[in-house]
Amino acid sequence: EPDVLDKPDAQDLPPAVGKVDLRAVNFQYRDSTPRVLHDVDLHIQAGTTIALVGPTGAGKTTIARLIARLYEVSSGCVCIDDIDVRRVTQTSLRRQTGIVPQDPFLFSGTIEQNIRFGLPHAPDDKVSEAARLSNAHQFIADLPDGYQTKVLEGAANLSVGQRQLICIARAALAEPRILILDEATSSVDTMTEAMIQEALQRLLSGRTAIVIAHRLSTIRNADLICVVDRGRIVQQGTHQELHDQLGLYRTLYDEQFNLDGDGSG
Prior knowledge:
By secondary structure, the chain is of the alpha/beta class. Helix content is about 30%, strand content about 20%. The chain is built from nine helices and twelve strands. The strands form three sheets. It has a six-stranded mixed beta sheet, sandwiched between helices. It has a four-stranded antiparallel beta sheet with strand order 2-1-4-5, covered by helices on one side. The chain has a two-stranded antiparallel ribbon with strand order 7-8. α4 crosses α6. The longest helix is centred in the middle third of the chain and has 15 residues, at about 160-175.
């Protein structure tokens, strides 16, 4: 029995503008366990990119999964365009929400079938267009069987970076209004990271995006950065605003870039 169920009177989510609100959200896995999130309030304007940063285990991924309703809030509510996500069908919510995970997962079948997963009847030109947007088209075209290349078990015939580009193409083809990126560049080399970042800039344009990032260099241009620590949002602002403050963000940033804490860089 799944933990998250549609209500008997659940309606389809109308075409989303993309405004997202978390209102006094608390979350714990079971009644007997400690809370993972404490009174989280977060307003995300439609079409903007927000980044969630903070130490491992702070609650960043949990926030993202609550927005996608992979988890159910313990109290409070998550709303999209002022509609509580518990009032809509999960299918209609997922149709308008895309997730690019940290560990890219490909199914058995061809590369083309993997890109089409969220939109099975998409025409060929839309598939290749999504692959071009994600910077995946060139390496796919260079394979002996191109888009008909079979994905081996565990996607052993593709690098981690190639798998991630295919996952981004899959999200691009589905054209979600809300996109969640869970440390999408954390497992790739610097050159592939640059390709992924370029693809994501195109993909995020005009969409509401929630980006979970470990490498803080990748989210400097986010419209809003939220610092999560021990289940609470402890800071919010732009990169420059947060770096100018004495707080957790500046500590994390300076540690990553080996700065001496004087605010340079």
